Each structure stands twice: as C-alpha cells, then as structure tokens.
Amino acid sequence: MTQIRHILSASQFDRPFLDRIYHLTNKIRQFDKSKEGLMYLQSLLPHQRAMLYFTQPSTRTFLSFQSACHILGIKNSEIRDTSTSSEMKGESIEDSLRTFSSYVDLIIMRSPVRGLCDRIANLLDQSERPVPIINAGSGPDEHPTQALLDIYTLQRSFKDFGGLEGKTICMVGDLKRGRTIRSLARLLTLFPGTRIIFASPEAFRIENDLRSFLQTSKFEFLETDQFSDAIYQSDAIYMTRIQDEYDTTVGESSKVDSSKFFLNASHLKHLKSTAVIMHPLPRRNELDPVIDKDPRAKYWRQERNGMWTRVALMTTLLGVDQKILLPEL
Ligand code: NCD
User: Fold this and answer.
1) Nearest 5°: CA angle at 159, between 158 and 161?
2) Three-state SS string across 200-224, please?
3) 269-299 pLDDT, tens per residue?
4) Tens of pLDDT, residues 68-97
5) From CA 64, how far away is CA 44, in angstroms rounded?
6) Out of 49, 55, 75, 123, which could bridge 104 as a Cys pair, Cβ 3.0 to 4.6 Å?
7) Residue in 143, 175, 285 to alter for ligand 1 test, most ligand atoms within 8 A of Cβ
C-alpha cells in the first residue's frame, strides 16, 4: 500500500489504500454506536491541531472535516474569508500557509486556485515544519477526499450485489469543470470491469487530460448527450451541478440547455431496482427533491459517509489507524 504524506490528488491512491479506507471507515462507524467507542476515538489525537483554510464556499466538506476533527479530539482553527487575514494586507498565499504551519499539525485547504495545494506541499516540504496538506477541493481540478467518500458509498451500496467491479456508473452534468467527476473517474479505473457513461451537453464534456488518462488506462467509457438512454443501463447515477462559478464570460453556462440532464421522478421507473443515485451536493434543479424518498437515493448517506471517511483518512495520515483496526469492539 502506498504510504501517503499529503493528500493532493486522487491519482495518489491505489486499490489497497481504498480497501483499507473502506475497512477503517466501517470500523469507525462501529465506534460511533456507543459512548465508549466515541470517547475512545476522541482520545486518539487530542494533542493535535488542524487548520481549515477554506477560501471557496463550502458547507459539507468544511463541516465534515471539522466534525471529523472533533471526533478524533483534534482542535481546529479556521480561515474562511481572506478579508479577515493578512492576505488583505498583501501577504502572499504562500506566506499565509507557511504561517499556519507554525501553529498546527495538519492543514486542510480548499481554494479556487488550481494546483495551489501541490505548490504549498512542496514549499512546506522544504521548510522546517513539513506539516501534511489535505486538498479539500482545488478549483475545477481535483477533489480527492470527495472521491474517497464516493468510492466508499459505492462499495457499501454494492456489497451485497457483487461489489463495485463490473458496474456501470453514469456521470451527469458539468463534466468539464466538476472536480468531483475528475477525481472519481480516476479512482473507478482501479475497479476492474467497471464502466463509465459520461452524459453531458456538448459544452460540458470531460477535459482532454481525463479522456487521455482513461484511454491509456484501457478503461471502458462512453460519452453521450442522450442521458435518458443511459439511465436504464446504469448501476449508479452520479448527478452534478453546473459549475457556473468558473464561467469566463457572464451568463456563459445559462446559454447551454442542460435541462435534458436533469433527473426527475419520471425517470425512476427506468432505473434498475438495485441502482443508486448519488450527488456530491449542493444540488440545484438537476435533481428533483421528490427523489429523496426513493430508497435508491443515497446522497444524504453519501454526505454523512464523508465525515467517516475523513476520520479514516486523518487517522491514516496522522499514524493512529492501527489503533482503530486492532481493538475488538
Ligand atoms: C462539490 C465541490 O465543491 O466540488 N461539493 C462538495 O464538495 N460536496 C460539488 C459542487 O460544488 O457542485
């Protein structure tokens, strides 16, 4: 299994790492069932401090990381708005992050800047405080911890149906700028026989680098603008929001008709009974709230799984994962 210091990209993970996170996450959920279990988790890292540096909007990722810190007894500080930090006085992002490393043991960061996490990890590795960095979303580029929780949710959903191997995952919406798509698609290549159908308007097709990666990995995928035809073939439907915050001209996204890529109640009868519906959230009108009541809707569980997988990830990064795996409950 790969030994990992920073979490920067989904391409760092191999299959043994994913299987271990799956196993660890299941154990952590068991601990959550009792007060003793939760007190045990809180006793693992009370001497550690983490920084949450989130300069792009976030609800779930921020709160699930913060809750994961609380679960493990880690104390956390946060910056969510650079107007309250010395970046406002002209301090560079590099200097700001280096400053955090003086005070904490782990930095979890979300930024609109592509590649910033890698730059900061490099910078810190050459400093006297090489604290680990976790990428919690880097522009339209990568969202590796979301991909981990998505894989966990898929593995768990299919555990009684032959596993994730061989399943067809339909990814829908803004595949061009959706970082969750980019990271998850990479991880799916680690599951033999799995296939992706990318369903999107022409303007939001996957980027060339992802397409080439999938081709060189000899991974089976299909790109289509016929979402309704893809529904009945799919074992999982992974919906995404149009990422209009990355528009380069005003109203660019609204000029594209995305309505054919919305999932609504009328589609449910075409969906396999064992299929799952996922969404990294937040949603807009691409996923009708009426669907929430369908047992195949997994997105609320998916968001809670995010907290548990992030606990698993932090125990791995901070070297206490054995303390989760060993004790008998
Ligand atoms: C996603 C993100 O920020 O990339 N949300 C999340 O982290 N759960 C998806 C989105 O914003 O559409």
Assistant:
1) 60
2) CCHHHCCCHHHHHHHHHCCCEEEEE
3) 999 999 999 999 999 999 999 999 999 999 9
4) 999 999 999 999 988 888 888 999 999 999
5) 18
6) 49
7) 143
